[in-house]
Amino acid sequence: MGRTIAIANQKGGVGKTTTAVNLSAALAAKGKKTLIVDMDPQGNTTSGLGLDKNDLEKTTYEVITNEYPIEECIHQDLFENLSLLPANRNLAGAEIELMTVDKMQFIMKESLNQVKDDYEFIIIDCPPALGMLTVNAMTAADTVIVPIQCEFYALDGLTQLIYTIELIQKSLNPNLKIEGVVFTMYDARTNLSLQVVENVKSYLNQNIYKTIIPRNVRLAEAPSHGLPINLYDARSTGAESYGLLADEVIENGGAE
Ligand SMILES: Nc1ncnc2c1ncn2[C@@H]1O[C@H](COP(=O)(O)OP(=O)(O)O)[C@@H](O)[C@H]1O
Ligand SMILES: [Mg+2]
Q1: Which of 21, 24, 67, 131 is 20 to 30 A from 183 via CA?
Q2: Given its phi and psi angles, is residue 176 left (phi above 0), alpha (psi -120 to 50 degrees) or beta?
Q3: What are phi and psi of 18, to 5 degrees?
Q4: Ligand 1 nearest-atom number relative to CA 125
Q5: Average pLDDT over residues 56-67
Q6: CA dist 47 to 25, 86, 88, 120, Å?
Q7: What's the 40 CA to ligand 2 centre distance in angstroms?
Q8: How many Å apart are CA 255 and CA 120, to the nearest integer?
């Protein structure tokens, strides 16, 4: 049975989508059948993997609103071993529409249960908010990976994020765990990046991945080519580090 991991942080621009796309692609390249679920109305994961997001009729939104079964909405093997449930701006409406639905927090979980056996990993890219979409992702997930950008305000909002995860553990998903924290956009030329890493380490009592994702321009370029980093520039530091992160995630256990 697949392991479901939500990539979450309510801050925008910290590297959630970059991590969701490239961790998924690295897992797929290591032979793990992987599904990536775009839960962000911005649809950056979807466009970053080469789909025209505005041209899609069957997306995460149609899954959440029960218009189509999830199997029909998944783009199977978009790349080798990598499938995608895409999203676009329609998904923004789901946040409000969900409010009137019975057991609204469990909709994604129930949908993913139908396909969980088909994948070794399901990676969910969350929106930059702690609303109903993120709650759905965390209710469906086994674990959460929190990307933290190496910048001065890195710690801001982390308390609230961890509090939200604890609330979900208490009420909706008792087995939810924080799988780990991954530092992103590390700039070896500045002391600030190093200080942020030291700071977060001393403040957070959580598993922190040994792999630190460097700032690498190839990672920022890859989405405009519709490719994950390992297919865009396999020899870049970005590709290498997401490969190492994938090794750690696999070693963390649970993936049969
Ligand atoms: N390691 C990195 N090196 C260089 N640019 C990065 C890196 N990680 C993310 N970016 C860029 O930073 C921006 C925000 O990243 P993104 O993954 O979209 O964050 P989020 O999904 O949390 O909003 C994007 O333009 C992305 O290309
Ligand atoms: Mg994003």
Answers
A1: 131
A2: beta
A3: -60, -40
A4: 21
A5: 96
A6: 15, 9, 9, 23
A7: 7
A8: 6
Q: What count of other Cβ atoms lies within 10 Å of the Cβ of residue 131?
A: 15
Cα–Cα distance list, 153 to 125, 180, 211 (Å): 22, 19, 21
3-class secondary structure, 150: coil
User: What is the spatial distance between Cα 179 and Cα 102, in angstroms, rounded to a whole number?
Assistant: 29
Q: Read off φ and ψ for residue 171, nearest 5 degrees.
A: -110, -50
CA 79 / ligand 2 centre spacing (Å): 20
Prediction pTM value: 0.97
Distance 117 CA to ligand 1 centre (A): 31
Could you tell me if 184 and 148 are in contact, meaning their C-beta atoms sit under 8 angstroms apart? yes
| Ligand in nearest proximity to the CA of 133 | 2
* Confidence (pLDDT) at 1: 67
238 within 8 A of 229, measured Cβ to Cβ: yes
Cα–Cα distance between 83 and 8 in angstroms, integer? Answer: 20
The secondary structure of 155-197 as a DSSP string is TTTHHHHHHHHHHHHHHT-TT-EEEEEEEESB-TT-HHHHHHH
Q: What's the distance, Cα to Cα, between the start and end of the chain in Å? A: 7
Q: Specify the DSSP class assigned to residue 86.
A: -
Enter the tokens of residue 234. Answer: 């396999």
Q: 149-159: per-residue pLDDT in tens? A: 998 888 888 98
Q: Which amino acid is at 83?
A: S
